[in-house]
Amino acid sequence: MNYYIGIDLGGTNIKGMIMNETLQPVISKTAPTPQNKNPESVFSEINNLIESMAAESEIDMEDVSGIGLGVPGLIDSRQNLVLNAANLFWTDVDAGKWLHKYLKKPVYTENDGTINALGEMYFGAGRGCSNIVLLTLGTGLGSGIIIDGSILHGASHVAAEAGHMIIEPDGARCSCGKNGCFESCCSATALTRYARERIKDLPDSLLLAYASGNQEAITGEMISKAWDEEDPAAKQAVEIFARKLSLGLVNLIHLFNPEIIIISGGVSQLGERILGQAREQVENALMHPIQRCRIVTGELGIDAGVMGACYLVYSNRN
Ligand SMILES: [Zn+2]
User: Fold this and answer.
1) How far apart are CA 4 and CA 19, in angstroms?
2) Most buried of 158, 172, 188, 241 (most Cβ within 10 A)?
3) Residue 9 C-alpha to ligand 1 middle, in angstroms?
4) CA 166–ligand 1 middle distance (angstroms)
């Protein structure tokens, strides 16, 4: 029996999973990411997580084919090199070398958007598709692109950074230091910013009541609830968000001609409130009906990444 280990490393948690050779999950576990976030502590924690999963499920490490690792940041997957991971404060971290310190197994490292795309493609909303764009709309905006069944890597393996397409020149400041990136227009952070801006003109908004008068405490969940109550500020914030999202989606459709665009991450919980409007605007902006593609929310939630990381090992097996 062969086993595949997947690890989805995030700024807050590390998720781990082991799948058997028929790609059935055997065990999964989560551990907090060490607070100091330095590579030594993080990889030691990853090793602990792997050892405890293997011990609990009585899997001999001899039977493990390899480890798939997803990291939020710019990754050179040819060298398992994390070039930059802002929320881990990492620059040029050799993930392969660190993991080999503990485990003598092949390591496959990809960006977190990519492992999410692989997960949804093989186990979730993208089953049966081989041309997929996946966007994770959370604190930031991550993405993974699969074309003709293969991960889009680009010349130096840092392609598919959809979050940093410019959607709005002179728009809001992005985490990358530029202005008006897709991420700064269409992350969860952007959605709550739009709500706060709308409240200036609509101070009677339910959102202020939900947030006990503290604008900074407004969440996506509150916007969703207020939208259902026909609250004008929530409605307008979602409308602004959907319009900008549709601009990004149209760009991606023109470039990649996907069969499906999968939206995951925190904002995806607003579901049709956003996607209904975005779909309509995308439809109006296409050049030809042949470009139409499905725009849906992910099916696997926070498990998509770790499942995709297991699949990454499976797809690279000999
Ligand atoms: Zn940016």
Assistant:
1) 5
2) 241
3) 21
4) 8
